[in-house]
Specification:
35% of the residues lie in helices and 16% in strands. It is of the alpha/beta class. It has a single domain, classed as HUPs (Rossmann fold, 3-Layer(aba) Sandwich). The chain is globular and about 45 Å long.
Length: 194
């Protein structure tokens, strides 16, 4: 890598809501992969599943609240402001324009890596960014020895946004699963109620 080239991690997610696992993955990726910044990209219109009840602007506010706790993390509106399905290939092209002469590193969980071949323009993704993957409970990372994929070692965090939404709907506590600013927004805006 030449002097002056910055590495920017790109972490796409629904962030519905963001939780401690998102922050830990960002911290570990920044440290281990020598990233200068990690950019969270809340999904605008998901291409592979129905859109969540919570609108993109709500999920953006949640992501901003969580990212404020981690100096190396910023949040991009690139998918929220772009009409149509949120394809990562389009997002990486847009971010390459915003971060010229930087090396983009696409941060994925092992569950996402397992489905990567079904993504729009999947064959282009390694041309647009390096790929780094973090383990997920129950998903094997075998077979990456000869792949151009960096591995992010991190504690196994069995926290899922879907479980947090379910806990809120059942009026169960989420205090140590999400950052406090996120918990407060969920409470103040009465998100995820049954």
């Amino acid at each position: 890598m030449s002097v002056g080239v910055r590495r920017v991690g790109v972490f796409g997610s629904m962030f519905n809501p963001p939780h401690l696992g998102h922050l830990i993955l960002s911290q570990e990726a920044a440290w281990q992969l020598h990233l200068d910044r990690v950019v969270w990209v809340p999904t605008g219109t998901p291409p592979h599943r129905p859109a969540p009840f919570e609108p993109p602007e709500t999920r953006l506010r949640l992501a901003l609240a969580a990212a404020a706790l981690e100096p190396a993390v910023s949040v991009s509106r690139v998918e929220i402001d772009r009409p149509g399905p949120s394809y990562m290939s389009d997002t990486l092209r847009a971010l390459a324009g915003r971060y010229p002469a930087n090396e983009l590193v696409l941060l994925l969980g092992a569950d996402q890596l397992a489905t990567l071949s079904s993504w729009h323009e999947a064959e282009r993704l390694p041309e647009l960014a390096r790929i780094a993957v973090a383990p997920r409970p129950g998903i094997a990372l075998a077979g990456l020895e000869n792949a151009a994929v960096e591995t992010i070692r991190m504690p196994t965090i069995a926290i899922a946004s879907s479980e947090i939404r379910a806990r809120v709907a059942r009026a169960e506590p989420i205090r140590h699963l999400v950052p406090e600013p996120v918990r407060k927004l969920i409470s103040d805006e009465r998100l995820y109620r049954a």
